[in-house]
Design goal:
The protein is mainly alpha-helical. It is built from six helices and no strands.
Length: 209
């Protein structure tokens, strides 16, 4: 009885924290999308995204601290670490892309950047839903469906990046080519980490059904 009373709150706390991290990533994606859609006050919007990224870091740090103090975890310890780390990497890439946009002082984002921002919002929104489902394995099939969808979105992002980079190399300004190529690649990397998160979620439900 005493042991059960100790385990259940710990389980809930891990799931709560993972959900908070996923929600923070989705919030960062929304802020990126707002920056790309309305390209004004870029420095203020960049700072807002940086603040969201710092919040995500703090939540991940809390998860790792809890793992160091907890003997029994609701799902495999390595899965908690992988999930928190990949979510954090997604947000790091969103922040990195925003930093480059501000640093390079581009006049306006390209259509490909805006499209990639849309894909990142869709993927992180789906992942937020899926992370909220792993505390209840009765929703395992829906988690798997979301994982497939996020993998599809990563393929869409790949195509957007490849087509955008190919178009860039038809231009004549080498500085513009370098700047835009780097930003586009950082945005696409965000979706790579989204795919990593999706694969980890798929593994979690496969092991805990």
């Amino acid at each position: 009885m005493g042991l059960k009373g100790w385990i259940v709150p710990q389980e809930r706390q891990f799931f709560d924290l993972l959900e908070q991290i996923a929600a923070t990533v989705a919030e960062g994606a929304q802020a990126l999308q707002e920056l790309l859609r309305d390209f004004r006050n870029v420095s203020a919007k960049q700072k807002h995204i940086k603040d969201i990224e710092h919040r995500g870091d703090e939540l991940v740090h809390t998860v790792f601290e809890m793992l160091n103090k907890t003997f029994i975890t609701p799902i495999d310890r390595e899965d908690i670490i992988a999930l928190a780390s990949s979510l954090d990497s997604t947000l790091d890439m969103i922040d990195a892309a925003t930093n480059q946009i501000a640093l390079y002082r581009i006049d306006e984002p390209s259509a490909a950047m805006i499209d990639l921002g849309e894909v990142i919002v869709l993927a992180t929104s789906e992942l937020k839903r899926a992370v909220g489902m792993i505390r209840n394995m009765r929703q395992a099939d829906e988690v798997e469906r979301i994982a497939v969808e996020v993998n599809r979105l990563e393929n869409v992002a790949d195509d957007l990046m490849n087509n955008a980079v190919a178009a860039l190399f038809q231009e004549t300004d080498p500085i513009r080519i370098i700047k835009f190529k780097e930003i586009i690649e950082r945005l696409e990397e965000s979706t790579d980490f989204c795919e990593d998160v999706a694969n980890i979620l798929s593994d979690i439900v496969a092991k805990n059904r």
